[in-house]
Amino acid sequence: MKEAQAAAKAAEPESGPESRSPLLLVVVLLLLVLLQSPIRRALSAPVMQNWTTVFVAVVVQALPFLVLGVLLSAAIAVFVPPSFFARALPNRPALAVPVAGAAGAVLPGCECASVPVAGALVRRGVAPAAALAFLLSAPAINPIVLTATAVAFPRNPEMVLARLVASLLVACAMGWLWLKLGRTDWLRPPSAHGAHDGQSKGAAFWGSVRHDVMHAGGFLVVGAMAAATLKAVVPEQWLRATADSPLLSVLALAILAVLLSICSEADAFVAASLSQFSLTARLTFLVVGPMIDLKLFAMQAGTFGRGFALRFAPATFALAVLASVLTGAVLL
């Protein structure tokens, strides 16, 4: 009798997540059919049409640059050995810092790739100050990012130069600051195990591309939604009150850059959509974002240790805001 009951129970279909997913899909489709009239009315409202227009515009403009940046970043991470950077940098750390910072202008790399590359440089014996300068400059001033900035600000070409100057200043200043004040015990030696161990270069390249496109694309969608919401939902007088205060507008966009964590290849289009704010405030958004945001803090803590990230991130944020304000006052 017990054997028969056990056999009957084994023959019953499992009720796990996989068996429930078609049912959930059917329920969702039924709800959409039943609620199609209210949904249609909501989408036809002027505020939703404005929201959709801004969202689609930001995503469509930014997506090509994001994909191109991810492709080039993956190619450099996979095909260019870290020893190349070690050989190319001067032996004197004080000179290696600006050289490493300037190297970011010719070597495309998004934030997700710059942290592992910097960790590899430290493992290969490069001065940490130079590796950190490259970590900050590569996502901020590479050709893809500067081209995207020029496209996003066609009426303000000075934004390209301002972004280049301010970001390079911060990268070099942080490198020299670490050289002067940094301590060895603050920086945990990065692990020697890479993310692509045991894979062919082709498999590692496409694996990196798939990961970065999904990762960066998700943050782009979040950033576009935030920009659309600010434009369409937040009362105009609130934005104007914030934008009219030079100090408040700069701090607001600096904090927004940290929270949104947008990929640097796409952030210029989000900044351009925030037209209520001054060019200096939007420059702050563009300088802070590629250097310190939520995902970068997590990656830096995972690669170099939490103690390093807790010291490095606030100093980078403060210097990025200061350099943006000074550069904006001179160039914008």
Helix-strand blueprint:
Elements: H1 2-11, H2 17-34, H3 36-44, H4 46-79, H5 82-88, H6 93-103, H7 111-123, H8 128-141, H9 143-152, H10 158-181, H11 201-232, H12 236-244, H13 246-260, H14 267-273, H15 279-288, H16 294-304, H17 306-331
Helix pairs in contact: 4-9, 4-11, 4-14, 6-8, 6-10, 7-8, 7-16, 8-10, 9-10, 9-14, 10-15, 10-17, 11-14, 13-15, 14-15, 15-17, 16-17
Transmembrane segments: 54-81, 93-117, 129-153, 160-179, 213-234, 246-262, 308-331
InterPro entries: DUF318, UPF0718
Organism: Streptomyces dysideae
Architecture overview:
The chain is mainly α and 332 residues long. It is built from 17 helices and no strands. It has one domain. Helix content is 78%, strand content 0%. α13 (246-260) runs parallel beside α15 and α15 (279-288) runs antiparallel to α17. The longest helix has 34 residues, at 46-79. It starts with a helix and ends with a helix. Residues 11-15 have low confidence and may be disordered. Keywords: Cell membrane, Membrane, Transmembrane, Transmembrane helix.
In short:
Keywords: Cell membrane, Membrane, Transmembrane, Transmembrane helix. By secondary structure, the chain is mainly alpha-helical. 78% of the residues lie in helices and 0% in strands.
